[in-house]
Amino acid sequence: MTNLITPTRRTLLKGMGAGLLASAALPGHVWGQAAPIKLGFQLHRTGIGAAYGRWYERTAQAALKVVNDAGGINGRPVEIVFEDDATDPKRGAEVVEKLASQAGCDLIFGPLFSHVVIGSAPRAGELKIPYLVCSEGYHVASGMLNRWTMQPGITDVRAQVSSMAPWVTQNLGKKVTMVYPDYAFGYDHRDFFTEAVKAQGGEVIAQIAIPPTETTFTRYLPQIPTETEVLYHVMVGPAVLTFVKELGDFYGSGARPQIFGFIDSLEAVDTASPGLEFLEGTHFWEAHNRVKQADASEAETFYRAAVGVDDNGASVSDAADVATYSHMFSVWETLSVIKKGMEAAGYQGPADRQKFVEAVEAMTTFDAGQDHPQGAKVFNGKTHQVFGHQFISKVEGGKLMRVHQTAIEDGQYADAVDYSTQSF
Amino acid sequence: MESAVTAATLALTAVGLSLVFGVMRVVNVAHGEFFMLGAVSAWFITTWVGGPAWASFLVALAVAPLFVAALAALADRIVLKRLDYEPEATIVATIGLMYIFQQAALSFYGPQAMPVEPPFNFRIQLPWFGYSAYKLSVILFATLVLIGVWLFLTRTKAGLVMRATQVDRETAQAFGIDVDRVYAGVFALGAGLAAIAAVLIVPIQQAHYLMGHDPLLLAFITVIVGGLGSLRGTIIAAVFIGLSDGLIAFFWSPTLAKILATLLVAMVLVFRPQGLFGAKQA
Amino acid sequence: MRIWTLHLFTLAVLAVLLATLPPYHATNLARILVLAVFAIGYNLAFGYTGLLSLGHALFFAAGVYGAALPITYLGLPQLPALVAGLLAGGLVAGVTGLLALRTAGVSFMIVTLMFAQAGYLTLLYFGPVTGGDEGLVLPDAAALLPGLSADVARATIAYALFSAALLSSLALVQSRLGRTLVAIRENEDRSRMLGYNTFAVKLTALVLSGLFSGAAGAAYALLFGYAGASFATIQYSILPMLWVLMGGAGTVLGPLVGTAAMFYLVDIAGSYTTATLLFVGVALVLLILFAPKGILGTIRERWLTWLP
């Protein structure tokens, strides 16, 4: 009986933010009488997305500080109003309402879970407030949402999945068995990966769907065909650890296929946890390398320090508190896009919301750097979706070490929608 | 085999719920949270104690259920007793407790799932797949605990008092039984059993603040299918339910199997409302 | 007479509130009114007839999808879709009742729970059609009543639906059928001996309850533009129970009071604390300790004994 009630929390950063502004802002920087720009953040503080929500909040706070230290947006200070949506679509729509109508936010960003995004986006469209999601779902680019909803901070799952296929088929094997959750997120993986593998001359020989209420997986594992060369797995939710451990029990020390997984399975989980020794030598998709790589850029180092993540991808204050590193950068980068978009639109207040959306739609590329620590990106103003590099890492000594970086083009696909022709 | 582990922990959780339900007539919605608290406190205890995995695990197995039982007794004294165990009021109250416990876990433990190291990692390796010896020991230990509970209820005075209270509260009171103490004891025992199940399962799964949800639903179903107040029925129902969707999953797609298994169990109740082993006038 | 005056007065106050509240609270009130219809439906089964169900999410979701699917796939206009949702709720409640009402008490609770769980999984199983966990986006609420803005259309529909639900439930509980329901709740065996076909009466109550729930589900989906499987989760079976118990089971206005109180309890909690679950949990425990009959139930017991 999880999240029966959808609790909310509003952290008006007035008190805390004001102190932060006063003490941490560049000395000598005078805000004058400028009213702050208010950004609403739809936060998964409770419910099934809470592990992500905690890091999304930390990333947003860190990015906010950087923006304010650099002079805010259009010469105005920025504050973020956090509101918990309990990772629930009904409460999500209510939170959009609250942030837009009651807190008077200029725009809303931050939600991750697809059902929350899809449940909330209609309300955002109706209220005519920009809604920038950090979700990696294919729902934006598929055309099911509206002109006010955009995803400029993270590559969608369709592109992520498709860009993996060449490397997987060339390096790990051509006969693939997929294990995925039996609902929409899993279907995106099933459909797009199967298609991409085929295009590479490989074949998906078995698709094993796991029902959403399952907490133990051992009974599904015998369905993996013995001729499988690559086992592709993606799971979300707290049961993922069980899944990986049971996979380990299943194969034991005997022969096993190559294993390729999506890091979603292990976000916020230490890869060196007891029972996960089995992952040694297996590969993972990562959108952002959790473990600091030898060639990490200056921007990467800066971002890591600002958010408070150590070189292993855990909180600097608690090594057991592992980040959701492959997703949370989207919050930081979305704030960069917000700043850029508001500056390009000469944003003054809610009357300029439409100009802001048009300004973002006009964007085409983002350069790697402090604003985009995950790397360079290409933004498609028609589908409202961004595309970036993806990484494949191998677990070596319990740590994820990068072995491959995809090109941005590897994930791009034909447009399914042109939001920029829709009316506001 | 997997089903046997599910059945074993389910039986422990469900017997705990069944006791509370049978003796006190309380629908304890917070039962799943006692399960969760068992797992979470096991994580804290093993982390604090340190040392070899088997030693810290044994400490957790001993201490976590006691801690949870004490918490339950406290909740009984502070809240449930004052409601005079009125059925509808206790539902709301235990929903309230559920939120309080969830928030406590979220604030002090956090939103992420964290594992506890199993006391031993021995693996029975067969040519085509391996099997964890720890899971076998879970089944064994759960069985021992269940036998212990059965002996406690049938062979000790305290157990007799509990059963007498279950049959007829007023008469028990008339015979000088301190019903309040019995209730607090039953509530603590029920919560403690859920906590034991959780400590056993946490090296296989992991501790998470929302993990109490599924065990609660399954335990409820088990108790009703087994028949109210029938310990034997509860255990047989746990085995039945543990096996049912595993078997059906063999034939159909897993989600369809879940649907069919759920309806199958519902039909058992529809056509045998008193449960498999309940008396006709349950 | 004073009973009808009270309820009509309540409706008048709601109309004024809808028209004068600031936008945020006005939209919240529209949500509360629709959800209160769900609670009224639950109250008919639980508060008046004594049927403790944990499966009402199924009826609500039947309404959600009964409206959403014809709109999405058959292009049905929205108002007929609302009726389709209402009927779907009643139909599913009828089928559920035919089976589940063979049981009573806690068994009934568990059987309804399991039907709802099977329904939830079925929505996921047919994900390509239902949108599964992600759900479907429905047309703008403005299309409901052409010529009106979305906000006005939403408030109007929510208010009309709530008024119809409140008045019909009031008429119902004061009718012969209503008294029979209470008689069954108090003592089913005696009602049976007095010659009532208690199974038929309970089934009628459950179907009526399903109609209310289905209407609420359909309205919620249409007014807020979203249908998803999450509406079939157990959370949406427990919420109406909580609303009813909070407002006062077996009172006509209790569902409205409980829904509104719970909504704002959650909403306000967020402004003062990050530990919202704790806040809500403690509030529930305190409420049940000091007002065990719910808000209106306690008022009725102490002061207004005539309250229906």
Automatic annotation (TrEMBL), chain A:
Domain of life: Bacteria
Keywords, alphabetical: Amino-acid transport, Signal, Transport
InterPro entries: BCAA_transport (IPR051010), Leu-bd (IPR028081), Peripla_BP_I (IPR028082), TAT_signal (IPR006311)
Record-linked Pfam families: Peripla_BP_6
Domain Leucine-binding protein span(s) in chain numbering: 36-398
Family under the similarity heading: Belongs to the leucine-binding protein family.
PANTHER family to which the protein is assigned, alphabetical: LEUCINE-SPECIFIC-BINDING PROTEIN, PERIPLASMIC BINDING PROTEIN OF ABC TRANSPORTER FOR NATURAL AMINO ACIDS
Name listed for the protein in its UniProt record: ABC transporter substrate-binding protein
Organism the protein comes from: Paragemmobacter amnigenus
TrEMBL record, chain C:
Record's keyword annotation contains Manganese: no
Mode of membrane association: Multi-pass membrane protein
Primary residence: membrane
Transmembrane segments: 29-51, 58-76, 82-101, 108-127, 152-173, 243-266, 272-292
Keywords: Cell membrane, Membrane, Transmembrane, Transmembrane helix
Any matching Pfam family: BPD_transp_2
Coiled-coil segments: none
Compartment annotation: Cell membrane
Ribosomal protein is among the record's keywords: no
Name of the featured protein: Branched-chain amino acid ABC transporter permease
